[in-house]
Amino acid sequence: MNSLVGQRFGRLTILKYVGKYVSLNGNGRHSLWECLCDCGQVKIIQRPALISGATVSCGCYNAENARKLGLSNTTQNNGMYGRCGSLNPRWNAELAEGDRTNRKNVAEVIVWGKAVKARDDYTCQVCQRRGVYLHSHHKIPFAMSKADRYNVTNGITLCKECHTTFHREYGDNYNQDAFDRFKLTHGLIAAA
Question: For residue 179, what are the contacts with CB-CB under 8 A and spacing of at least 6?
Answer without folding.
Answer: 137, 139, 156, 166, 170
